[in-house]
Amino acid sequence: MTQTSASAGRGVQLRNLTRVFGSVRALDDFSLDIAPGELVALLGPSGCGKTTALRALSGLEDVDSGSIVVDGEDVTAKPANRRDMAMVFQSYSLFPHMTVAGNIDFACELRKVAGDRRKIVAENLELVGLGTQADRYPHQLSGGQQQRVALARALAVRPKVLLLDEPLSALDAKVRVQLRDEIRRIQQEVGITTLFVTHDQEEALVVADRVGVMSSGKLMQIGAPADIYSRPVTGFVADFIGQTNKLPGRSAGSSASVLGQTVPLLPGSASGDVTVLIRPENITLRPAAGVAADRAGRVQITGFLGSHAKVRVEVPGGFVVAQLGVGESSGLAPGDEVEVILKDVPALAVATS
Amino acid sequence: MAGVNARAKSGAKTFRVVVIALASVYFLLPLVSLADFSVRFPLTGKVDANAWLALIAPDDSGRLDLLREGLFNSLVMAVMTVVLAIGILLPTMMLVRLRLPKLSRIVEFICLLPLTIPAVVLVVGLAPIYAVISTKILDANTIWLAFAYVILVLPFVYRSLDAGLRSIDLKTLSETTRSFGGSWWTVLWRVIVPNVRSAIVSACFITIAVVLGEFTFARMLARTNLQTSLFQINLSDGQVAAAVSLLCLGLTTLLLVALDLIVGLGERRRARTLAPVTVED
């Protein structure tokens, strides 16, 4: 692929972006830096502003204040058609009156891509594994194939930044996983700076170099997927990423007392009466009768999930969900008495509301 | 059970045939009658082709000149009306859908309004406007009636384009084109127009049909178009007028078929120019 060097390595800086729709602040002093060649995923619930941020970067949405800098150039006032970016939409967005090749060729024509356009079209179709589908029309392709064409089209124009707006949301589960991995492979192969917007946390954690979690127009936390997952800085992030048990506890500096056990706390945790957020995989269960009341539990439901199992256990004042290996969970049945053991893994404590 | 299904299918087929037959009779009977009238002398029943021959014979009465003028004016006005109506309405409807969706009801109301106003009433309003146009802005040429015809065809063009625009994802297509560097003109001409081609073609058809068949405006504003010239000829020779009417109908049909073929041909040619190539590793 000759386009690697042509398109890779453009940094992006979004600075203090604000966008207000009526009474809703879709972007509220939003800032984000994307390093050249990096794939950043913006994750958050519906209405958190992630798509507005992406559209602001693309130029399809105006911002009320703030600046957008791409490759050292301030593009805030530039219209969408002069920003040298390419976008893949959720709804495929292929031109229905053009063939697969025509779609890519048209995009190259608009962007005035230099070189043999036919070769570029063919190369990019090969890249997404659709080399034999060039003369088909969009309606003759499956959803997954259409989205691959949209991706090939976006890559063919050698944009400074690739923008992916929930590109996998309309696909079925199997195709979604397949294409998700393919997007990551191609992005790394081409080395293009990419902003990926999704509401699917698994998708974000798997494809991104860094994940940004948004809420109410603000970037709550950004970091490597493992950091976001294991070291959330707010209750919202801990709650939104993965599954979390919310257990009442008493914090004393760097540790808290929960279910009669001591759990180390992450920096930034609250003190006093707190709610400690503990991941299901950081809880183990041991079949036992007659253990101390504050760590005793009774199995309510067991759920087999293939590679692992989730067990819901009734504990004093509520319940916890534990994630166990298939072997560990096989001996447990609803009604069994168990001892709930919290692993020595740092957790976040937030003030009890 | 199978017998019941077979009877139901047979009944439905019979119903379809009857409906098609009735519709065919409804549309074709006046045309056959018109053709018959053009070749049969009303008093004696004698059949001859004099009325048709009169169309190609040397004419010293001036009626063919009148017809030519009327036909020319109507064709020019049909083209002007098509260009103006679609040229104004399509970008407007796109703009309203993309940027001003709250205005869509108002635009729809305005576009459909001419349907509720009788042509005679419209002419009463338009007469003073055309008096100014004729004397102060342009001249008394018939072709300026095209401006009034744009109003007349608005409801039909709106409905047709509306159906076309509803059938595509206008927002995503235009945003995709913009994100790849396309101007708004590119969005309109290269993306939206090809995707609402059938809606535009049907809007063209109905506009041409309305303009070629329009009589009230031209007659009351004392202009010469196809219908007013046919009316004049009819006053002197009804059979020639019938022959001319049939001829015009045939020409109009040919025109519309040709238009459809030309538009379709352009699309197929573009698709053919993008044959795939093989990549060598």
UniProtKB/TrEMBL annotation, chain A:
Signal peptide: none annotated. Its EC number is 7.6.2.9. GO terms for molecular function: ABC-type quaternary ammonium compound transporting activity; ATP binding; ATP hydrolysis activity. Keywords: ATP-binding, Nucleotide-binding, Transport. It is an enzyme of class 7 (translocase). Gene3D superfamilies: 2.40.50.100, P-loop containing nucleotide triphosphate hydrolases. InterPro entries: AAA+_ATPase, ABC_SmlMolc_Importer, ABC_transporter-like_ATP-bd, ABC_transporter-like_CS, Mo/tungstate-bd_C_term_dom, P-loop_NTPase, Transp-assoc_OB_typ2. Residues 12-241 form the ABC transporter domain. GO terms for cellular component: ATP-binding cassette (ABC) transporter complex. PROSITE patterns: ABC_TRANSPORTER_1 (PS00211), ABC_TRANSPORTER_2 (PS50893). This is ABC-type quaternary amine transporter. It comes from Propioniciclava tarda.
TrEMBL record, chain B:
SUPFAM superfamilies: MetI-like (SSF161098). The chain crosses the membrane at residues 15-35, 71-94, 106-131, 143-161, 199-220, 240-263. InterPro entries: MetI-like (IPR000515), MetI-like_sf (IPR035906). Residues 71-259 form the ABC transmembrane type-1 domain. GO terms for cellular component: plasma membrane. GO terms for biological process: transmembrane transport. It is found in: Cell inner membrane; Cell membrane. It comes from the Bacteria. Pfam families: BPD_transp_1 (PF00528). It is a multi-pass membrane protein. Keywords: Cell inner membrane, Cell membrane, Membrane, Transmembrane, Transmembrane helix, Transport. PROSITE patterns: ABC_TM1. Belongs to the binding-protein-dependent transport system permease family. This is ABC transporter permease subunit. It comes from Propioniciclava tarda.
